[in-house]
Amino acid sequence: MPGKPIKLTFDGAHGAKLAARLDLPSGAVRAYALFAHCFTCSKDLIAARKIAEALTLQGIGVLRFDFTGLGGSGGDFASTNFTSNLDDLGRAVEFLRAEYDAPKLLIGHSLGGAAILAMAERVPEATAVATIGAPADIGHVTHNFADHLEEIKTKGAAEVSLGGRPFVIKRQFVDDLGKHDIAQATREMGKALLVLHAPRDETVGIENAGKIFDAAKHPKSFLSLDDADHLLREPADASYVASVIAAWAGRYLPRDAETPVKPSDGVVVRETGQGKFQCMVMAGHHRMMADEPESVGGLDSGPSPYDFLSAALGSCTVMTVRMYADHKNIALDAVRAEILHDKIHADDCGECDDAHRQKGGKIDRFERRLTFIGDLDADTRAKLLAIANKCPVHRTLEATSLIETSEARD
């Protein structure tokens, strides 16, 4: 099962901090997707959540975010327009490309679908696009505040009610809509396209799906959503859309977890925003959670830092013993290492040298219990025990290490 989405922020096109969620699969990431929500909606709409959950089960990571001035993002919605939305999407792509990998799949709901079509050509790495209830003409959005268009034209702005919430719409927003040709962008994007639309959609008519589908070049597919409403409020409808997109996208994405990651000289650890201690650990294309037990205020969603340290010692020991056994043709069927960690007073350490005792206070003690399975005599078992002490992590823990700390600069 996928874990909780990771809370993130990145800079929007006009300087505001944009709130985002990154949903990751439990294993290696096959590819990344970018989701754009509907007009005045947010990343936390049920459709967005369901789609993200379904895609993570297919090994796809999903970034969903709030456009400037909406949801948890900063900035002034009244100062935004369709062009600024495209710029925000561009920043989201740049964020994914820099921190993880560029999105291979682009998904948009309603006006977000039109935005995805308009900017898809700017993402050469993307191979597939899916739209849900998207308008073919973005001027269609003005029907949401048609009664106020004259006031917006004459006064330059008007406060309108959208979804039961007040928003200020300025003339520049309306004027900007005419600058974009979604049909032309769809013809030129060069991606596989899946159009999902409900025939009974009362917000964006089904004729829009036909126009988008006709404008697109093959490969293209269309799926009727029967009696689903525009916002996919019914969880069953949202789940259906999510499963279809996940299955369809699989044809156009890497079949295995081949996604390159941002080059790094070491392990990267970042807070997830979930709980008090939870962190995402990134080592190459591997993703792991680190956390603390519930007894100390954590979520117990992953190993603790000392668990990871013990795991490093244990895995290094098993690998070292295996390499030695294979090199010497020793009939070792299997090896198991159990690592126990605690802290003891240096003065109570019978195995410690004078240098450890002179430090005083408490020191870390790792107890390593090895199990060798195979037809082995006593001498061979003794040799394997001795080899375990030559494990590189063992030597690192016993030696004095130098840790240099500095602030990373962009």
| Sheet of most strands | 8 strands, mixed
The fraction of residues in strands falls at: 15-25%
Q: On the 0-100 scale, what is the average pLDDT? A: 88
Alpha-beta content class: alpha/beta
Lateral strand order in the biggest sheet: 1-2-4-3-5-6-9-10
- Total helical segments: 12
Helix content: 25-40%
Low-confidence stretches: none
The radius of gyration computed from the alpha-carbon positions, rounded to a whole number of angstroms, is 28 Å
Ends distance: 35 Å
Give the overall shape, derived from the CA principal axes.
elongated
H/E element order: EEEHEHEHEHEEHHEHEHEEEHEHEHH
**Structure summary, number of beta strands:** 15
Map the helices and strands:
Blueprint: E1 6-11, E2 17-23, E3 31-36, H1 46-56, E4 60-65, H2 82-99, E5 105-109, H3 111-119, E6 128-132, H4 149-155, E7 157-162, E8 165-170, H5 171-177, H6 182-188, E9 192-197, H7 207-215, E10 220-224, H8 235-249, E11 268-271, E12 279-283, E13 286-290, H9 305-327, E14 334-345, H10 354-359, E15 362-373, H11 378-388, H12 392-398
Parallel strand pairs: 3-4, 3-5, 5-6, 6-9, 9-10
Antiparallel strand pairs: 1-2, 2-4, 7-8, 11-12, 12-13, 14-15
